[in-house]
Amino acid sequence: MGLKSFLQSTSRLLKMSRKPAKREFWLSLKITFLGTILIGGIGFVIKFISSMIQGISV
To answer: Which residues touch 28 (CB under 8 Å, ≥6 apart)?
Structure first.
């Protein structure tokens, strides 16, 4: 992909893009926060179980 075609593609994308509506923005924000909390919760549970297993074996 040459520089010229990259710039043309970028220009096309920017012309098509638009600012999200308030409702759409809040929905994206909620989904992002829920995903972050979910991944963090899973990581916490794994770390907690790991520390419990290490505590038992010592």
So the answer is: 20
